[in-house]
Structure formats: C-alpha cells, structure tokens
Amino acid sequence: MFGLLVQWLLYAIALLVVSKIVPGFEVHGLWPAMIAALVIGLLNATLGFFLKIITFPLSILTLGIFLLVINGLMILLASHIVRGFHVRGFGAAFWGAVVLAMLGMVIRAITRSEA
After folding, report:
1. Are 81 and 103 spatial neighbours (Cβ–Cβ below 8 Å)?
2. 4 Cα distance to chain centroid
3. How far is the C-alpha of 51 from the C-alpha of 107, rounded, in Å?
4. Which of 94, 92, 51, 39 is closest to 69 using CA atoms?
5. pTM
C-alpha cells in the first residue's frame, strides 16, 4: 500500500516535470498534479485499455508508437476533467506522453529497487 502511494506521488512529480519541459502542458501545483495522475491512471486502466485492445494491429504495425497516441488522448481527456491541469492541443499531449513514458520507466526502476 505504501509503495502505491509513493508511485502516485512520483507520477504527480513527473507531471510537474513534464509541465516544465513540454510547451502547452501546464500543471498548477502539486495537488492538481496528484489528481491528474490519478485520473490519467484510471482513464488508462479503463478507456485506454479498451482502446489499446481495439487498436492492437495498428500498434504492431507502428512498433508500439501508436500506444503513445492513445496515452496522449488519455492525457488530453484528463486535462478536460481536472482543474489546474491544462494541455493545449494534441501535440502537447503527445509529447507529454512521450516524456511521461520515459519518466515512468525511471519511476518503475526506482520503485522496483526499493521493494
């Protein structure tokens, strides 16, 4: 349980880092980042999972790059739901998904080594 909370906090911090790197990707504080991380996770676990199953052949053809498109769409959708989290356009959402994927690899490596 504690590990899950640590991961949630690290992903919220990752969203704050992305907001400093990607133009058009704005997070106004830690609390909106934490809510956005939760909403993005829930969207990826439900709607994103469904979309990834449906577009599986396209993901194979693009060697997985289309998964970033789906993640970008989930980020864009979350930005319409969460106050204090704004993404201006699909381009910012896509590049935010790319940076979040890279930061996610680092977060998973850190949380695995602690367990």
Report:
1. no
2. 16
3. 24
4. 94
5. 0.89
Round to whole Å and give the CA distance between 17 and 95: 13
Domain that holds residue 89: 2-114
Query: Angle at the Cα of 108 (from 99 to 65), degrees rounded to 5?
Result: 40
* pLDDT of the chain, 115 residues: tens digit per residue: 787 888 889 999 999 999 999 999 999 999 999 999 999 999 999 999 999 999 999 999 999 999 999 999 999 999 999 999 999 999 999 999 999 999 999 998 988 865 5
Our count of domains for the chain comes to: 1
* 51 close to 57: Cβ distance less than 8 angstroms: no
Residues 6+ apart with CB under 8 A from 7: 107, 111
- Centroid of chain to Cα 56: 19
